[in-house]
Amino acid sequence: MKVIQKHELTSLKRSVDQGTEEQRESVKRIIKDVRQGGDNAVNSFTQTFDQVSLNEWRVTEEEVDEAYESIDGEFVEILKEASQNIRQFHEHQTTNSWFEPSADGSILGQKVTPIDAVGIYVPGGTAAYPSSVFMNVIPAQVAGVDRIVMMTPPGKDGKVPAGVLVAAKLLGVQEVYKAGGAQAIAALAYGTETLDPVDKITGPGNVYVALAKREVFGDVDIDMIAGPSEIAVLADETARPNEVAADLLSQAEHDARSSSVLVTTSEQLAKQVQQFVAEQLKSLPRYDIAKASIEDYGAIIVCVNIQEAIDTVNEIAAEHLEIITKDPFQDMAKVKHAGAIFIGPYSSEPVGDYFAGPNHVLPTSGTARFSSPLSVDDFVKKSSIISYSEQALKNNANKIAQFARLEGLEAHARAVETRKERWK
């Protein structure tokens, strides 16, 4: 793990993946084929890309029951407790409609309405992600979404990982389909013979999923275009180097393009963390992935004081930020850009990934400068309410008409002025 200077941060930055021209064109063709061919096109792509031939791509009740029976009872209880924590956290995010009457009889306000139908993409591939089920489905349920469709790629055996199906069952998700990649996103956006389209798609995925989400945006809404995972650790001499090293590697094992950065005021900590990362890396099952991540996107930055360190993490704007310092809450108050902030030595990043309650679908690639974690707000829409009274229009008609004419919109002005005839 290399030590770099602050000005070298640009060498670690990765923009949200735009893909290659070949990948973008491939995604466009897949989407077009699914729009035209429906179920047959989806199943054909599943056979091509996943080497799985499916007679039925909707998960059956029997498959869900089989998955539930195969899971250890203790793990089911852990899933239940985690889902309760996540639900409780998101229930604090709800917003209500509001209406404000004025003395002249007008009423202005905002109406909050859940989105009708949402598609949740749960990635497959090298791992199973029941946590992704919870983090996408629960805020949608808390928001009041009526229809939630889950899409996830099948394994080589044509089945969905048991943990994913059990998580869906615990939440009462009724529609689960076996498809991944761009074809899954196209099916959610435009529908097929057996699947009605949704209004919004959320959840992470590989580059083809990201490109497909970008392509269908506008016909449906999406949550974000997620890049590789990342962590920054802000630490001083009070941090334990073996713990910091373990936390850095927790993100490095996600992806070869994941980024793990230690920002510290302690040269001694920096040296010790270097040693522990090298030592702990050797025994990781995902050694090759984590090693590539640490070598290419792992770094340590030593700062002269805590303010310089805070400025540095603000520049990074990391998806996950851990603060392990003498005064972590005081330092947290100065942080402006981070997806999720983990405070103190007992708040290791996986605590948030799985169990504490906050959402782990977070802005990546520096986009925490302007965006937020997935939340209940992502599953509602807001309508402005305008109910002008007669007196209010009398008082303001001339001003509104003048404003319209200033913009060169005569019909706008006349639409207001025609109502003056009521008062003659």
Automatic annotation (TrEMBL):
Residue numbers binding substrate: S229, Q251, H254, H320, D353, E407, H412
Reactions this protein catalyses: L-histidinol + 2 NAD(+) + H2O = L-histidine + 2 NADH + 3 H(+)
Catalytic EC class: oxidoreductase
PROSITE patterns found in the cross-reference section: HISOL_DEHYDROGENASE (PS00611)
Binding site for NAD(+): Y121, Q183, N206
Functional pathway: Amino-acid biosynthesis; L-histidine biosynthesis; L-histidine from 5-phospho-alpha-D-ribose 1-diphosphate: step 9/9
Signal peptide range: none
Known cofactor(s): Zn(2+)
Residues engaged in binding Zn(2+): Q251, H254, D353, H412
Cofactor note: Binds 1 zinc ion per subunit.
Annotated Pfam families: Histidinol_dh
Keyword Ion transport recorded: no
Residues forming the catalytic site: E319 (proton acceptor), H320 (proton acceptor)
GO-annotated molecular function: histidinol dehydrogenase activity
Keyword Glycoprotein: no
Alphabetized UniProt keyword annotations: Amino-acid biosynthesis, Histidine biosynthesis, Metal-binding, NAD, Oxidoreductase, Zinc
Domain of life: Bacteria
Enzyme Commission number(s) of this protein: 1.1.1.23
Family: Belongs to the histidinol dehydrogenase family.
Role this protein plays: Catalyzes the sequential NAD-dependent oxidations of L-histidinol to L-histidinaldehyde and then to L-histidine.
Name the record gives this protein: Histidinol dehydrogenase
Chain's gene name: hisD
